[in-house]
Amino acid sequence: MLRVQGLKFLDWEEIELEMAAGEIVAIQGQSGSGKSLLLRAVADLIPREGEAFLEGVACSEFSPTDWRRSVCFLSAEALWWVDRVGDHFDKTVPEERLQRLGLASDCLDWEVSRLSMGERQRLGLLRMLDREPRVLLLDEPTSNLDSETSVAVEALLLEYLEENQAAAIWVTHDDSQARRLGSKVYRMAGKKLEVVT
Ligand SMILES: Nc1ncnc2c1ncn2[C@@H]1O[C@H](COP(=O)(O)OP(=O)(O)OP(=O)(O)O)[C@@H](O)[C@H]1O
Fold first, then answer.
1. By CB atoms within 10 Å of each CB, which of 6, 31, 38, 171 scores lowest?
2. Which helix (DSSP H) or strand (DSSP E) does residue 193 occupy?
């Protein structure tokens, strides 16, 4: 589904990655090792060499907007550009999704400024799913969450990947999360991507 070929940014070594529909690839590595840069490079958000292919079609064949809608990067700190939470969503978020993630049923009417870090993270994730991406580039998507809410986020994401035959690259500092979710686990170290399992 997603193939990354000879991807190179700054002075990191070339990166090759391939993932199938429904698959999660987990990426670990010390702080500053280049995990976020890799996700941004795949999303075509930073200057890079090499190519990424979605279902065989090169990134360069897409408009930048179409690529980023299909291969969607979720930053650890999602950006919010208007005051009201609900104005960031194209569609109505099913009440059941809010409930599953422990979010208040009226949170779409809230001001962004009142959101806690964990609420921002969960709503950023729902906003991403609202756009129905084919590939999810997740930068520590549960870093601000308690363990129970993290489990709920994991379950929702697994369900989304299965139902939509989408794929994800999941950056995490949590070893057990990487092993639990990743069909392959990689580590960024020494400016290169190494296979762990
Ligand atoms: N435009 C740039 N030019 C040079 N160096 C940069 C640039 N952008 C980021 N870096 C550096 O690249 C390194 C990797 O950054 P990155 O954000 O990918 O780390 P990370 O592995 O995601 O870390 P963390 O786990 O702390 O989030 C950092 O040292 C960062 O300062």
1. 31
2. strand 192-195
What pLDDT score was predicted for residue 4? 97
> What total number of domains does the chain contain?
1
How far apart are the C-alpha atoms of 184 and 186, rounded to whole Å? 7
Q: How many CA atoms lie within 13 A of 146 on its CB side?
A: 6
Q: What is the pLDDT confidence band of residue 183, given thresholds at 50, 70 and 90?
A: very high
Cα 50 to middle of ligand 1, angstroms: 19
User: For residue 3, is it within any domain?
Assistant: no
Tell me if 29 CB under 6 Å of ligand 1. yes
Ligand 1 centre and the CA of 34: distance in Å? 5
Q: Residue 39: which domain range?
A: 20-47+63-195
User: Which is nearest to 69 in space by CA: 119, 137, 18?
Assistant: 137
Asked whether residue 4 is assigned to any structural domain, the reply reads no
Atom of ligand 1 nearest to the CA of 34: 18
36 C-beta closer than 6 A to ligand 1: yes
Give pTM, 2 decimals.
0.96
pLDDT exceeding 70 applies to what percent of the chain?
100
- CATH number for the domain including 130? 3.40.50.300
